[in-house]
Design a protein that fits this description.
The protein is mainly alpha-helical. It contains nine helices and no strands. Helix 2 crosses helix 7. The C terminus is likely disordered.
Length: 340
């Protein structure tokens, strides 16, 4: 009984290996035929099946859509984060689960670095001097602009860059894969056509090596019919996917509007902050007044020291800005290392 089981197991293993070897041989034969057909086409020794003109137009539009979308995404990223090193670090934190491994993105913007240096210099020169107090006030404003810039980078990325990247990695990648499959089906179809032509040219010859020319022609024609059906099916699938690209532009328009809105908000906030700073500097009231260490809110709501009125809502960003320390940064603070 044990011998019978062992024999049955060996037979099953042999059959499985034979099937695997057969599949490998079939795949190798298909790849060889495609490579041969492709090479002969390049050398002008084989005919090529031309695609439907409408399919050719769609392929050209698809290629243009892919290239232009990649350019828009890359250039928008360069606008938000011009520094290539900062872009690489941002890409790392976007694609790696940093929260799970205990990392935090503490990179400051160039405006925040500038603000820290100005506050350090202002404290060193003296808050009672015109230049020192002005440096502190400008440094605070630069820090506030840095926080506004961070919010702009976040909203700009969420509004346009991330959606375009998802489109390229999802829908566009799927279309390009189907186009590659279609090209392989076309090579298989042309290889079958060549075999049919070769089999027909051998009809007048005598049977050779036990191969009947008529049987070889029938087999080649059957393979041609199957290959033609697979090619037509794949062409229809690819055509439908490429035609659907026009619908994705509706989503892209919505993302573009979101990006413009983030830019409008960013430049409007920056303009208000700089206008307030300019008025304070022109007024000449920084030295010897409460404005030596002013709050970083855009408006003081008419209260001393910029404190909000009782019962009024406090903007979280305003609270974060008001807590910025005016002390000098640590001695190890990186200086002049993040220049666009």
């Amino acid at each position: 009984m044990d011998n019978f089981k062992r024999t049955l197991t060996d037979a099953s293993t042999f059959v499985s290996r034979a099937v695997q070897d057969s599949n490998i041989q079939d795949e190798a034969s298909v790849v060889f035929n495609r490579a041969k057909q492709y090479t002969e086409e390049k050398l002008g020794k084989a005919e090529r099946t031309e695609l439907d003109p409408q399919l050719v137009v769609l392929e050209r539009k698809t290629e243009n859509t892919k290239n232009l979308t990649e350019k828009i995404k890359n250039n928008a990223t360069a606008v938000l984060i011009p520094n290539p090193a900062a872009r690489a670090e941002s890409l790392f934190f976007d694609n790696v689960p940093v929260d799970k491994i205990g990392l935090k993105n503490e990179r400051l913007t160039n405006l925040e670095y500038l603000g820290n240096d100005m506050i350090e210099a202002g404290n060193e020169f003296g808050t009672g001097t015109p230049y020192g107090s002005a440096l502190i006030r400008v440094g605070q404003t630069e820090q506030k602009l840095g926080l506004i810039e961070k919010d702009y980078i976040r909203t700009g990325n969420e509004g346009l860059i991330a959606p375009l990247q998802r489109f390229l990695d999802g829908e566009m990648k799927n279309i390009m894969r189907e186009r590659k499959v279609l090209e392989n089906k076309r090579l298989d179809l042309d290889a079958c056509k060549n075999r049919v032509r070769k089999a027909r040219s051998m009809q007048d010859q005598q049977q050779k090596d036990g191969v009947d020319p008529r049987a070889a022609l029938d087999q080649a024609e059957n393979e041609l019919r199957l290959s033609q059906a697979e090619f037509d099916r794949q062409a229809e699938i690819t055509k439908l996917l490429m035609e659907g690209l026009s619908q994705s532009q509706t989503n892209h328009l919505r993302h573009l509007k979101a990006f413009v809105s983030s830019q409008v908000e960013y430049y409007a906030q920056a303009h208000l902050v700089m206008q307030d700073l300019n008025r304070e500097l022109e007024s000449g009231t920084l030295v010897g007044s409460e404005l030596v260490c002013p709050p970083l809110s855009a408006h003081s709501n008419g209260q001393p020291n910029g404190q909000p009125q009782i019962g009024m809502a406090v903007d979280p960003t305003q609270e974060q800005l008001a807590n910025i320390s005016l002390t000098s940064p640590p001695a190890t603070f990186p200086k002049n290392t993040h220049v666009f």
